[in-house]
Amino acid sequence: PSVMQGRTLHTSTSDAPDWFYHIALPLGLLAYFVLPGITSVDILEEAARMGLKVIGLDPTLPYVALCVLPMGWCWAPYVAHTLLCDLVEKAVPNTGVLNRVSEGLPCPQFRQHDIIHWEFLDDMAQAILAGSKDEDPLADVRRLLRAAFEEIGVCLHKEDWGRGLVKSLGMTAPHPQLRLKVSEAKYWILIKATGFASRARFLTGRQPV
After folding, report:
1. Is the pTM of this model over 0.85?
2. How far is residue 58's CA from residue 45's CA, in Å, rounded to a whole number?
3. Helix/strand/coil for 160
4. Segment 67-105, tens digit of pLDDT
5. Helices then strands (H, E): number in the chain?
């Protein structure tokens, strides 16, 4: 989106920690996520070895199954992302699909919307145009998001806000130039991965960096 003359871009970002594991699977799907060859006794013994205490697990159960959204399931990213978008748009007024940055859709513009937002899996961000003297015009948005997520037992973290584009999805655009660039932390990971790739004869999606 373009920034109109005389206005200042402000952004705010946050993250829902362990988001996948806060999403319960429907009971009808649990049979598909049984852990083969693992019993409740195995879990209790491994927990004891690690100095952990498991509460509420019946040691007589013949098998165990995952009951939360497993990150390795191919549908998990879609479910996590969709639920995150839905929760944000219910918590924050004037947010929805029309002013959400989404792949394959026209980019929303500030000329039509007061606020623009985007989400990805467990990350969320909002952008607004304000006067140059406004310090934190998105404070109320963060308060609403905190309240909505705390209601379901999730405490948001990695909160950041400021002028320009604060770090979001590995990118940043500092005020006032607003030139989009890879954040420094992600940049060095990219360099390291590129160097590894140039030395390797064969690469796979599971190649360690």
Report:
1. no
2. 13
3. strand
4. 899 988 999 999 999 999 999 999 999 999 999 999 888
5. 4, 6
